[in-house]
Amino acid sequence: MNRNTPIMEVKGVGEKTRRLFEKLDILTAGDLLGHYPRDYETFQKPVLIKEAPCGEVSAVYVQVTSIPNQKKVRNLIILNVNVRDASGTMQLTFFNMPFLKKILKPGGYYLFRGLVQSRGASKIMEQPKLYSYDEYQKQTDRLKPRYALTKGLTNQTLQKTVQQVLSLYEFEEEYYPMELLEKYHIIPYKEAVFGIHFPADAEMLSKARNRLVFDEFFSFLLGLRKNRDLTEGLKNAYPMFETADTVRFLEQLPFLLTNAQKRVWQELRQDMGSPYCMNRLIQGDVGSGKTIVAVLALLMCVANGYQGAMMAPTEVLAMQHFETISGYTREYHLAFRPVLLVGSMTAKEKREAYSLIASGEANLIIGTHALIQGKAVYKSLALVVTDEQHRFGVRQREHLAAKGKDPHVLVMSATPIPRTLAIILYGDLHISVMDELPADRLPIKNCVVNTSYRPKAYAFIAKEVAAGRQAYVICPQVEEGELEDVENVVDYTEKLRSALPADIQVAYLHGKMRPSDKNKIMEEFAAHNIDVLVSTTVIEVGINVPNATVMMVENAERFGLAQLHQLRGRVGRGEHQSYCIFVSSKEQKETMERLEILNKSNDGFHIASEDLKLRGPGELMGVRQSGAFSFTLGDIYSDAGILKQASDAVEQLLLDDHELKKEEHRLLREHYEQIRQGSVDFRTI
Ligand code: ADP
Ligand code: MG
Prior knowledge:
The protein is of the alpha/beta class and 685 residues long. It has four domains: 1-39 and 142-170, no CATH class; 44-141, CATH 2.40.50.140; 234-434, Rossmann fold (3-Layer(aba) Sandwich); 445-601, P-loop containing nucleotide triphosphate hydrolases (Rossmann fold, 3-Layer(aba) Sandwich), CATH 3.40.50. It has 24 helices and 22 strands. The strands form four sheets. It has a seven-stranded parallel sheet, sandwiched between helices. A six-stranded parallel sheet has the order 17-22-21-18-20-19, sandwiched between helices. A five-stranded mixed β-barrel has the order 2-4-5-7-6. A hairpin with a 2-residue loop joins strand 3 and strand 4 (76-85). The longest helix has 30 residues, at 202-231. Mean pLDDT is 87; it is low at 616-627 and 679-685. The site of adenosine-5'-diphosphate has 18 residues, from helix 11.
């Protein structure tokens, strides 16, 4: 069995399970091993009742002090029982488990494990699990993997299949040279894969994760260096001059550019007129107005007689840019002749777009990665702007090179990254920072609340809608089942429809919908035919509906702070006062503390660094901080140390053997080529 063995060949996987795996993008044994646990369940030693923290899962070894009391409420059988240990007392509640009445005897000792909650001055546990003392002892301090699932697939099945595969898998030979493993204290790949799925203890897990994160960073940075080799000192094949078009456009715009926008626009003009090809990143916090600067560059490009392209990570965002720029074009009589190109267009629509692009009739092409990966042949592509997250890897460069001479490249990102990391992660680009928001913005008002606040929040949303505004509500998952105890878009929408006045239009949006449906919903929301949009994080990047003033995030504790900051960035984009409501379903102290950082600050850089301080670099498998780089495990903030090591290792390697020609680097070269081939560099949401 190897990475390409179809998952069907694993014992116990039939057609039904295969289809469930497919939903999780697991087609082969290799895919399965790459489906790392989402987190781990730990069975810690039992604690005293007094010491069991509220809001956390604990195990207690206690004596039953009352006869179980059973009552029926509607079709629910509720069983209450009192327990105590040397430190205090507690009440346990069970639902629909009538048989426990016979098992739990007053005076007997039992071990229960569950979420401890406060009720008034006392503590309770609802629906705890019952263990025998010995059975529990065996599990203590072991880490049990918990995987991302899909409806119909249990954690148990997934875990068993991983075990099966691991027992038969023929691992490739270790591809890093020995010295590298030693220098960076990295464990072999095989050990790491075992360790990430079935860690013996926290230390093993940490080592396994370190190795896999190092791998992700290493191959990313190797690609980056190859990219730099390709772009450094590249001659400007499309020299441009400033024309009256951009000056006129700026005069007509209803607002003045901020000083930061002016400065960056100046840098872009200089780059595109210089002897060298532009490779620039604009880093600017959400709402700083990056789009308009890109539009200016594109306008200068078409005014010089060339074609420009603008690429977005999602179709939803591509459509939005298309609408915005088409609107400017009509209103200000700009020289753009825009065309849209996205994957979900019909074959006929695509053919029409291709022909406009090839003939040069279209001079501005807006879309997703279909722009460079599809069959489009450009007449004179001179500038490619990529908005949010998309950056050119070596592979895209190759695609582009096949389409003509190297164009100028402008990348825009809202990911707040400290300078030291930006130099590593964007080593192939010049960086412009846009550190100023338009002057008319009112700071967003935030609150962090628990679920009991919901009725108030709904009343508030209703009030804002009545005043003509719109709202977003974010849930972590699409439908019931993938994660436990987490709100989902589909059910929540129903809930919200019945909680809000009937004349309020509520609709939902998520990543699993057909692209054309997604686009339709987004258009309807932008046109204000929808008042409240319940969504997953698909709207996280780039979406701009300035009339939306409320952002409510359910299960906020499940998101990284940088991600929450991005979500918040969807409101406060116009002149209206905007609000953000973070709903946490956990009352844990740390969760509240983290969310408080957001409450106190609207500055992306500040939030990212405070979050890092609070979590400490040692925290394992935390919530993901940023989707800006599509690493599976690695997190550029909390794994900054590993990132620096990987960067160092790549430098050393290339210094020693630039082409990876030496025999001791053969396996590494082969591995790198293999993953480069298999990888799609773009996130397709
Ligand atoms: P981001 O940097 O997050 O991509 P956008 O480019 O989408 O932000 O801009 C957000 C909103 O701010 C848009 O509606 C845009 O028209 C507006 N905007 C941009 N620049 C200015 C400015 N200088 N003054 C006022 N509003 C601006
Ligand atoms: Mg944007």
